[in-house]
Amino acid sequence: MENPRFGLANRISDAIAALEWREPGSLLDVRESQEFLLACDFAGAHAEAQHESFAFLLGAIGQTGPWMEARGEVRAQLLSGRGEISYKGLNDARRQRALAPFLVAANLFPGNLVVVMVSKKLKRLFDNPGEQVFFPELIVAVRNWNVKSFHRLLLVATLGALLTSGLAASSQDLLWVTDQDEIAPNSTKHDDAGHVIHHCLEQYAPDFRGVLTFATTEANVDNFLLRDAVAITDLAAGCLVDAFGASNRGSERALWVSPASALTRKAQVILDWFAQRDHKLRRLVICLNESDDGIDVSVFQPVRVDRGQVFLLR
């Protein structure tokens, strides 16, 4: 993406490419499947959080057989087939027992889990692509939205389109799925969100020629398939918001996320899982923070040093 209009998006793209150049295999190639899945969720809207997190699961639907089988066993044995997994919902014994096996199954997902941490000190990102210059067709839609919710939608759509442009093949069909939350709470706003996502893909992934399907977890296809995909992003997003709030010390090469004593048990379990490597599911963290000359972009890989101590390494 060499369009000068996309300054911050270009910098994020370059930082991810630089990591892959230094450490080949940091990202999983998911271009061979006919269908490309993008599941997303976000966390950190509460006042106490220092960052908002936007998590994206991007993978090859045609290669999800082992994950489908493993997650099906977790559901049948520990969730009675129908229980949902979410970060906020880990408050009963049944879901707590299912958490670790659910995460082990998630290791088999053939794709990339990318979490973008955005400092709340940043008030404006991506040159505000919601202005008329970018989306004249959406001016009417904006009037029916809460300003914060609409800009959160724009941020989700922009980041997702940016990642799609780098990871998906131009001919793949894209299934984009999210929870039925503030960016798609009803049928009208679902349509608005679909238009925003489509426009962002046109801007940031102009070579993409596949069919876009935008769905929420309410579609409930194939025994909680969509909900379980989104649940992976929900757990990662919620955990990293808490982890960054607990401790955030680092150097130019590494960021110490948190000591175990400062986190809840569920956050410790998820963070410990997130820092595992050598699985089908690759993990990546992108940090956007305020700096003296604007916005600092850092791309990190998680690594587990000791239980409860996780470093993110550039």
What topology does this entry show?
Layout: H1 7-22, E1 35-43, E2 51-60, H2 65-78, H3 93-106, E3 111-119, H4 139-142, H5 147-167, E4 173-178, H6 187-204, E5 212-216, H7 225-246, E6 249-250, E7 254-256, H8 265-274, E8 282-291, E9 294-306, E10 309-313
Helix pairs in contact: 2-3, 3-8, 5-6, 7-8
Describe this structure in words.
The chain is of the alpha/beta class and 314 residues long. The chain has one domain (7-313): Ribonuclease H-like superfamily/Ribonuclease H (Nucleotidyltransferase, domain 5), CATH 3.30.420.10. Helix content is 38%, strand content 23%. The chain is built from 8 helices and 10 strands. The chain has helices spanning 7-22, 65-78, 93-106, 139-142, 147-167, 187-204, 225-246, 265-274; strands at 35-43, 51-60, 111-119, 173-178, 212-216, 249-250, 254-256, 282-291, 294-306, 309-313. It has a 10-stranded mixed beta sheet with strand order 5-4-1-2-3-8-9-10-7-6, sandwiched between helices. A hairpin with a 3-residue loop joins β6 and β7. α2 (65-78) runs antiparallel to α3, α5 packs across α6 (187-204) and α7 (225-246) crosses α8 (265-274). The longest helix is centred in the last third of the chain and has 22 residues, at 225-246. The protein is globular and about 50 Å long. Mean pLDDT is 83; it is low at 127-134.
Main sheet strand line-up = 5-4-1-2-3-8-9-10-7-6
Give the C-alpha Rg.
18 Å
Count of alpha/pi helices: 8
Instruction: Report the strand count.
Output: 10
Q: Write the CATH architecture name.
A: 2-Layer Sandwich
Helix/strand/pairing category? alpha/beta
Percentage of residues in strands: 15-25%
The top-level CATH class is Alpha Beta
The CATH fourth-level homologous superfamily = Ribonuclease H-like superfamily/Ribonuclease H
